[in-house]
Design brief:
Blueprint (H helix, E strand, L loop, with lengths): L2 H18 L4 H12 L5 H18 L5 H22 L3 H20 L44
Helix pairs in contact: 1-4, 1-5, 2-5, 3-4
Length: 153
Amino acid sequence: MEAELATLITSGATTAVGLMVTETWEQAKQRVLRVFARGGDEAAVSGELERSRDALIAAAGSPDEEALIDDVTALLRLRLRALLRHDSDAVTELRLLVEEFAPAAEAGTAGTAATVHNSITGGTVNGPVFQGHSFTGLTFHNTYDPPQDAPSD
């Protein structure tokens, strides 16, 4: 199997698993199902995807979470590999799915080890800037003194 196709299969499986644990799943599941069930039993594939999703959600934060993510990803990779061998038209559909939903999926599988890149633009920041997730109990003490040449009110 050529390297580009293998990469697409891995991206497709990773994207599907990532979507399963995000709020985007409801929006994306029909598209995912359409790709994975091509030429097969849609009800059976739907049930398999939902069971995998339920297991992933139940395992969130547990010591087994990473192993389960790896297992479900491997299962979906095998399914995609078999599908793409028999249905070359599915390549385009899978590629479009990955392009559209990969950013949302990455948020789902990133967990607490996610790499975040933030930047502040648009002028001078004269105070603290906090970027992150779920801040609680913050107290701000303003020690800012305006520059001497700044107009006063």
